[in-house]
Amino acid sequence: MKRKIPLLAAGAVALVAALASHAGRIEDTAQQSGTRAKAAVRVEPIKPIVAPKVTNFAMVELGKQLFFDPRLSKSGVISCNSCHNLSMGGTDNLKASIGHGWTPGQLNAPTVLNSSLAIAQFWDGRADNLQQQAAGPIANPAEMNMSHELAVRTLETIPGYRESFWRVFREDRITLEQVTKAIAAFENTLVTPNSRFDRWLAGDNRALGEQELRGYKLFKASGCVACHNGPAAGGTSFQKLGLVEPYKGDTSIPGRAAVTGKDADRFKFKVPTLRNVELTYPYFHDGSAKTLAEAVEVMGKIQLGRTFSKDENDDIVAFLRTLTGDAPNFRLPQLPPSGPNTPEPTPFEVVKK
Amino acid sequence: MKRKIPLLAAGAVALVAALASHAGRIEDTAQQSGTRAKAAVRVEPIKPIVAPKVTNFAMVELGKQLFFDPRLSKSGVISCNSCHNLSMGGTDNLKASIGHGWTPGQLNAPTVLNSSLAIAQFWDGRADNLQQQAAGPIANPAEMNMSHELAVRTLETIPGYRESFWRVFREDRITLEQVTKAIAAFENTLVTPNSRFDRWLAGDNRALGEQELRGYKLFKASGCVACHNGPAAGGTSFQKLGLVEPYKGDTSIPGRAAVTGKDADRFKFKVPTLRNVELTYPYFHDGSAKTLAEAVEVMGKIQLGRTFSKDENDDIVAFLRTLTGDAPNFRLPQLPPSGPNTPEPTPFEVVKK
Questions:
Q1: Which residues of chain A make contact with B82, given a CB cutoff of 8 A?
Q2: ipTM of this predicted structure
C-alpha cells in the first residue's frame, strides 16, 4: 500500500503568478523538492506547512501498524491511536485521556497532527523528539502500562512483524529503538497542509473571507502570534500560563520546571499548535476550555491582559477555523496476527507490590 | 470517498474455463450481478463469499463514521471498532472485551467480518439482524453504557452528522433506527471474499496445497461441515457446546435458552464463522482456546467424539488458514467535530442508584 502524500496544491503555484501584484508582500521560497518550481508566499509569522518527503515507505507503513496496535499495551486494548485518534484530529477530545484500568489521565492529550513541527514533545517538553516521546506512554502505568521489554518480546513473537522489522532494519532482533523510530517515522507524515490559511499564505486571496482576515489581523495585533507562530502556529516555545492574570484552575502541577528543575519554569507549558484547533477541543493542558470562544477569551485575559469583545472573539475564532488542513489520508492498516507464543494481554492482572 | 468493492477475481473466470475438465464436479452459478458472465464453481458445503452490491454509498459512509465514533459511548472512548477492530480481523483478540469503567465482558466478541451472512446476531442469536444488534452494545452498561436517547441527542448536536443524516434519510430528526440502519449498511460491506479457499471453489486447483486439501477432506469427513457450512463456514445454526463430551469450562450461562426459554436450548450457541479464523483468536464463546490447534482438538473431542492425531490436527489447521480473505479496504474515516451543545463525555460520572 502506498501512502498518498498531500502536497501544496499544484494549482496554487499558477494562481500565485496571476495574483502576485495583489498579494501584498510576497517573496520566493524554495519548495522542499528541488525539482518543483518556486512558489511565491506571503511572509507571515505563521508559516506554511510543507508536506514531508517520505523516503522510507516501508518504515512508515510499519510505524502506522504499530501506532494502531493495541498489543503495545498490557490490556491489549490501548494503542497510540486510542488517545491520538486520527479520525478525530489526532486527539481523543477528552479533558484528559483514560488509561489502563480506566485510570484518569492528568493532562489533555496533545494532538499528534503536526507534532513533528514542535521543538519538543509532551506539555512539559520532556522528550526531545517524537521517537523519545513514543516510548513514554507504552510504559506509563497510567497509560498503556506495558514494560518496554514485554512490548518488544510481544512484537518478536508476531511473524508478520518479524518480517517487517527485518525488511526495514536488517537487524537480528527487534529493539525498542526500532519500534519508536518506526512510530516516529509514521508520525512525521502526520502533517496537515493545504488549509485555507495556507492557501492564503500561498497567495490565494479568495481563500480567506473578510471576517477571517479581520480575525487574523487582530490575532497578530493583540500579540497572540508572539507565541503561536511558525508552521504549527505554536510549538515553538514554553510559556507561563497566566502571564498577566493567574490561571483559574489547578496550578499545582510543575509544568516545564519538572524538566529543568528551575523555579522560573514553574507552570510553563509548551505552547500548543493551533493547526486544526477546531478539531482538538477541549483546550489547555487540563482540557478546561470546552470551546474555541472560551479558549480565546481566557488567553486574551490571562496571557495578554485584554478583554476581547464578542465581535472580536468571533473574528479570531473564524480565523482559527481556517487552520484546519488536509487530514492524513490512508487506508486502515491491517495488523499481523499473533503467533502461538505471543503473550496474552492481561487487562485484569493484579500486580503484587 | 468511494468504497472499492472487492469482487471475485475476474481472472478466475478465465482460469475456470481452462481448468474445467480437471476441476471435479462443477456447475454454473449465477453471479450477483446480472451483467457478469456466469462462473463455474465447485459445489461444496462451504460456499463462496459473494461481495455485496452497495447501492447507497452515502449510507455506508455514514455507517462507517458511526462505527468508528467513540461519542456513541458515555465515556467518549469506546466505539464499535474498539471490540470489533477492523485492523484485527473484526474482533479484539481478547478472551472477553473490556467495557465502560474497565468492566470485564462475559463473552468473546464475535468478529463483525461476514457477520451479515449469519442467521442471527450475538452468541445466543437474540438479535435477528445487524441493525437490531447495533443498538445493543451502545446501551449495555457493561459496554458503551450510553442511553439510546443520549446517543441520538449527541449526534443531533454535531453539525456534520446532521448534514449526513439529512442527505441519507431526508427526515427532520435523527433517530436510533437511522443510526443502526447506517451502521448495519456499513457492516454489510464487511465481507472478505477471495480467500484461497474461494479461489479453489472457483476452480483454481493451484489455490490450495496438498496438506490444505487433505485438511479440508478430513474436515468434511469428520463431520465439521455439519455445522460449519454455508458462505461463512458457520453462522447457519445453533448447536449445543459439548454434544458428545461435556464442555470443560463455565457451563452456567444459558446460551440460546435465554432467547427461547426452552431447556433444550441450554448452552446452545450460534456456530461461529470460520472465515478469517486465523485472525479471530482466542476461540469459543468464552475465548478459552488460545490457538487453532487447541480449538480443533476440543471441537473434535466434545462435538464429534474424535481425537485427531497431531498430523490430522495440523492438516485441518492448514485448511482453516486458507479461509482468510481480502480484508475490507477503506480509508480511515474522519469524524465530524462536536458542536457547542454536544454533551461532553462523562467517563467517570458516578450514577446514583
A1: 77
A2: 0.89
